[in-house]
Task: inverse folding
């Protein structure tokens, strides 16, 4: 009988919980009599997850390529989940901000080192056979990664560096969208015509992106940082976390991706052309577009030399 006070307390808490949502506690308790216990495979949905790797060829290392990119997308989801909490928290302080930034950075640190899974674990000859079945698809079309960019920084920092002087906060989102840095990778630089890579991407995600851009226009990590008190903005450990995240995403991770692509695309088996047909070297290398999420936290010299040191 010594556990009865605990049981009574739990029943009271359950009663309070269900009253808040206008539901009957006892009805839910009766449901427990008939529900099955949870298992690992039911909770993780293992069977569904393992059924998502569908090859387009019979080349065995295509499985590595598919699974690796699906894992990337799951990590991107976790990153967006952490950023969302920063954007929506009722009271943001240095400790919460720093904790979330370091979580996100660890995810990107893991993604950076994971490129060896492909570089050392996928046969070059096989890759250069099955990759042609992927045209015009490309990792460029990761919508979650684009959302990470939108949620990390003020939109002006994602505009093609050639057009930043002509765009400001009063610029319509649709116009800004057409001048994002990655647009250049999907357009013919002479005619301005969009490639299938870009057209397919926009047809699927443009409206969703515009909505997302509007939501994070003032809720991105850069804007949330500027909402902190001046004292908090000078916090050295928070600044270090901001800089680490910025450099990790826009230089370290990008260069790991760049070098893996270079290894497969420009090696003796490759033809130098990306599956999506983009000018991938100038699009990816940080020294060209100088993608910087928090430019105010870097010196002028650091910004001018952004990406040069990793050549």
Result:
């Amino acid at each position: 009988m010594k556990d009865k006070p605990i049981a009574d307390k739990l029943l009271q808490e359950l009663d309070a919980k269900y009253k808040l949502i206008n539901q009957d506690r006892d009805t839910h308790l009766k449901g427990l009599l008939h529900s099955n216990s949870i298992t690992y495979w039911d909770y993780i949905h293992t069977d569904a997850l393992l059924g998502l790797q569908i090859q387009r060829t019979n080349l065995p290392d295509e499985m590595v390529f598919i699974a690796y990119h699906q894992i990337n997308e799951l990590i991107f989801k976790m990153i967006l989940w952490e950023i969302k909490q920063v954007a929506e928290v009722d009271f943001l302080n240095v400790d919460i901000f720093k904790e979330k930034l370091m979580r996100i950075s660890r995810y990107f640190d893991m993604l950076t080192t994971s490129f060896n899974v492909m570089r050392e674990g996928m046969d070059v000859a096989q890759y250069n056979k099955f990759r042609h079945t992927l045209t015009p698809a490309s990792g460029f079309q990761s919508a979650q990664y684009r959302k990470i960019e939108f949620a990390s920084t003020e939109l002006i920092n994602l505009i093609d560096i050639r057009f930043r002087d002509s765009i400001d906060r009063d610029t319509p989102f649709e116009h800004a969208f057409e001048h994002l840095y990655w647009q250049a990778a999907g357009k013919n630089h002479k005619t301005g015509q969009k490639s299938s890579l870009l057209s397919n991407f926009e047809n699927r995600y443009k409206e969703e992106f515009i909505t997302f851009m509007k939501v994070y226009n003032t809720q991105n990590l850069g804007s949330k940082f500027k909402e902190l008190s001046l004292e908090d903005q000078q916090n050295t450990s928070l600044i270090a976390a901001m800089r680490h995240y910025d450099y990790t995403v826009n230089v370290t991770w990008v260069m790991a991706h760049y070098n893996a692509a270079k290894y497969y695309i420009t090696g003796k088996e490759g033809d130098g052309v990306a599956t999506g047909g983009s000018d991938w070297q100038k699009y990816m290398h940080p020294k060209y577009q100088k993608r910087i999420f928090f430019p105010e936290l870097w010196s002028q010299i650091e910004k001018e030399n952004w990406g040069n040191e990793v050549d």
Summary: Residues 197 and 276 are 5 Å apart (CA to CA). The two ends are 72 Å apart (CA to CA). The chain has a mean pLDDT of 90.
